[in-house]
């Protein structure tokens, strides 16, 4: 790429950053003005004149032109990281005392008002089972500007042995724009969520920066106390040191593939391809997906999300879901199918450790629209095929028979589910009837918002209930009718409820709470609709449409995880611990009482301090019972 073209691209991105910074004015005017000043300093008068002339040719403002140009390119194509994050400085609310500072922060969302605090004890204290991944958060702040701030983690040593430094990570928490409408008013803010892989970062005067610490405790670590340090070091020698004390307990957590917790987070391959500007399902695409999908497997994912028709949810996302199975209408009016992409993708997911269940969306699309290719013309055609109609059966019946035979031949039949999302009773009945007549051996999955008795007579192998509708009566029904191990009974959150949830602006304790809720209600696990369903560029702005920020994804491009993802995983690990303690008869009265406090109706009424205290009490009770 020539220097002049690169200069133009950078100018365009600077203009977009200026727009985003200006959007912060309502809630952070000083920071917005500072950001705009930095943008103006970066862009020369020649750059701005060029951009203005091109915009005028098209009758657009500079900002509109920048957005239009940027919308037509892959977000990661040749953009320097400095323009990727944080459209305003992470400024302290009050000037700092002289020097470089730090403290242990706990699991709270850090901002300019609460970043600075008591530095009296910087020791990070952790306890863990063997084979567990544990986390902590610290925060740094400085009076003077610093360059090349780096995080250095040592090994952890004790009388029982050593945990290598490679098992200890320290990464910066980066901020992204979170914008949403609340009571007809738009709120925009910077929120810390991205656990980044930057080797070093600058810090401006009177600014702060959270950092995320994690330890992967080896499965063969001996019980005992291990000590080490994590240090933040800047060019010139400024240094803040955090002693780390890890107590490894005499219990071992199974590998994630052996967890009983049923995690179902939907994948979106096309979002990854679009973001990185690669051909869907090319080698480059699979290489980009592999670390993301392996991270999902390391969190205990039990499903592979596949599509069997175009636009199963219409086009409610930034990127559309397309079909992995081609439906071609032949000249004689019958249909033939091409399963090669579905086969290839499922094999890839299995190689990453996902499964065993394979969910196929869907025979009951939103709006009942189904697409196919016409062999004679090459055109893509569509029709409205409502479940229960002859047209629906004519399209899907032969597919089910053929699909079942193929799955039986390759040994996958017992693991494949025809999946429905929030469909009504009639649609479920019609779909289940077709499976019974044409695809016997295929299973049925649905995420819904009614008790299973609403669908009496239909054997729903995997049923997931919206958390807001999980009542004592619902739980009694599940225990009475779905106790057979062949059934899976989980819960989900999505764009609601407002809390507890895993939005970017949700309090950190709520992500932990999700896993504890499964343990408290003895549910099999948790579903959420979006793993990497990214907006245009989640590093710049995590918002999309009317969804609350972060509703559409957990993990960022480049397999950068998030604070929300790590704490959701912590909650799932804790749920697994509780299961094992119960099986061994080690669950204490204190633990039982603590779990009684993890309840949706209760949480909805709690303030942040009360919900956090309820979570901490469960964690403390689990730790005490583990000794």
Spans of 5+ residues with little confidence (pLDDT < 50)? Answer: 1-11, 19-44, 78-83
Q: What's the overall average pLDDT, rounded?
A: 89
Radius of gyration: 26 Å
Strand content: 25-35%
Please provide a written account of the structure.
A hairpin with a 2-residue loop joins strand 5 (156-158) and strand 6 (161-163). Mean pLDDT is 89; it is low at 1-11, 19-44 and 78-83. The strands form 5 sheets. An 8-stranded parallel beta sheet has the order 13-25-24-23-22-21-18-14, covered by helices on one side. It has a 5-stranded antiparallel beta sheet with strand order 1-3-10-7-8, with helices on one face. It has a 5-stranded mixed beta sheet with strand order 2-12-11-4-9, with no helix packed on it. It is 33% helix and 26% strand. It is globular. The longest helix has 21 residues, at 3-23. The protein has 15 helices and 25 strands. Among the domains are: 3-83; 100-252, Immunoglobulins (Immunoglobulin-like); 302-492. It has 627 residues and is an alpha/beta fold.
Summarize the structure.
With 627 residues, the chain is an alpha/beta fold. The chain is 33% helix and 26% strand.
What key attributes describe this structure?
five-stranded antiparallel sheet; eight-stranded parallel sheet; alpha/beta; 627 residues; Immunoglobulin-like
Helix-strand blueprint:
Blueprint: H1 3-23, H2 29-42, H3 45-57, H4 62-71, E1 100-104, E2 124-130, E3 133-142, E4 146-153, E5 156-158, E6 161-163, E7 168-182, E8 185-195, E9 201-203, E10 207-216, E11 224-233, E12 239-252, E13 262-265, H5 269-276, H6 283-297, E14 303-307, E15 312-315, E16 326-329, E17 335-338, H7 340-352, E18 357-361, E19 369-374, E20 380-384, H8 390-410, E21 416-421, H9 425-438, E22 443-448, E23 462-466, H10 472-481, E24 488-492, H11 508-521, E25 525-528, H12 563-583, H13 589-596, H14 600-605, H15 608-625
Parallel strand pairs: 2-12, 13-25, 14-18, 16-19, 18-21, 21-22, 22-23, 23-24, 24-25
Antiparallel strand pairs: 1-3, 3-10, 4-9, 4-11, 5-6, 7-8, 7-10, 11-12, 16-17, 19-20
Helix pairs in contact: 1-2, 1-3, 1-4, 3-4, 8-9, 11-12, 11-15, 13-15
């Amino acid at each position: 790429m020539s220097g002049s073209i690169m200069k133009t691209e950078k100018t365009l991105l600077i203009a977009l950053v200026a727009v985003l910074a200006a959007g912060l004015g309502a809630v952070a005017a000083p920071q917005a003005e500072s950001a705009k000043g930095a943008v103006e300093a970066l862009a020369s008068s020649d750059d701005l004149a060029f951009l203005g002339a091109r915009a005028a040719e098209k009758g657009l403002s500079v900002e509109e032109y920048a957005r239009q140009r940027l919308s037509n390119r892959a977000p990661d194509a040749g953009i320097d990281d400095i323009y990727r994050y944080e459209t305003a400085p992470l400024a302290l609310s009050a000037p700092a005392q002289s020097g470089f500072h730090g403290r242990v922060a706990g699991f709270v969302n850090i901002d300019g008002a609460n970043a600075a605090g008591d530095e009296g004890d910087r020791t990070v204290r952790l306890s863990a089972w063997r084979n567990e991944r544990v986390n902590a958060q610290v925060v740094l702040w400085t009076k003077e500007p610093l360059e090349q701030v780096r995080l250095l983690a040592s090994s952890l040593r004790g009388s029982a042995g050593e945990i290598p430094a490679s098992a200890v990570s320290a990464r910066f928490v980066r901020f992204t724009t979170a914008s949403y409408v609340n009571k007809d008013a738009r709120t925009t803010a910077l929120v810390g969520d991205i656990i980044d892989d930057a080797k070093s970062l600058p810090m401006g005067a009177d600014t702060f920066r959270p950092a995320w610490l994690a330890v992967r405790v080896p499965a063969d670590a001996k019980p005992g106390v291990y000590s080490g340090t994590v240090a933040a070091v800047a060019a010139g020698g400024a240094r803040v040191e955090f002693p780390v004390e890890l107590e490894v307990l005499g219990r071992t957590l199974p590998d994630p593939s052996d967890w009983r917790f049923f995690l179902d987070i939907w994948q979106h391959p096309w979002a990854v391809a679009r973001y990185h500007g690669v051909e869907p399902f090319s080698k480059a695409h699979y290489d980009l997906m592999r670390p993301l999908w392996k991270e999902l497997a390391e969190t205990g994912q039990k499903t592979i999300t596949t599509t069997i028709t175009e636009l199963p949810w219409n086009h409610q996302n930034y990127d559309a879901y397309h079909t992995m199975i081609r439906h071609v209408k032949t000249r004689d009016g019958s249909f033939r199918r091409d399963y090669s992409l579905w086969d290839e993708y499922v094999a890839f997911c299995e190689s990453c450790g996902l499964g065993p269940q394979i969910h196929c969306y869907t025979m009951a699309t939103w709006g009942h629209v189904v697409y196919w290719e016409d062999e004679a013309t090459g055109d893509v055609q569509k029709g409205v095929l409502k479940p229960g109609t002859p047209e629906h059966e004519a399209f899907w019946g032969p597919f089910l028979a053929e699909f079942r035979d193929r799955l039986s031949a390759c040994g996958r039949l017992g693991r494949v589910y025809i999946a429905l999302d929030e469909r009504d009773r009639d649609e479920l009945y019609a779909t289940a009837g077709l499976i019974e007549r044409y695809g016997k051996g295929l299973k049925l999955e649905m995420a819904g918002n009614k008790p299973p008795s609403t669908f009496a007579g239909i054997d729903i192998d995997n049923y997931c209930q919206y958390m807001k509708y999980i009542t004592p009566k619902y739980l009694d029904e599940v225990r009475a009718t779905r106790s057979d191990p062949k059934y899976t009974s989980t819960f989900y959150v999505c764009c609601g409820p407002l809390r507890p949830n895993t939005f970017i602006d949700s309090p950190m304790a709520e992500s932990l709470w999700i896993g504890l809720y499964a343990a408290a209600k003895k549910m099999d696990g948790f579903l959420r609709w979006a793993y990497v369903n990214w907006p245009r560029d989640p590093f710049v702005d995590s918002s999309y449409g009317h969804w609350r920020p972060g509703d559409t994804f957990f993990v960022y491009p480049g397999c950068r995880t998030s604070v929300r993802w790590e704490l959701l995983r912590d909650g799932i690990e804790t749920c697994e611990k509780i299961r094992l303690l119960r099986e061994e008869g080690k669950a204490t009265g204190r633990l039982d009482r603590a779990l009684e406090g993890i309840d949706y109706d209760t949480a909805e009424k709690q303030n942040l301090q009360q919900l956090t205290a309820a979570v901490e009490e469960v964690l403390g009770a689990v730790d005490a019972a583990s000794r």
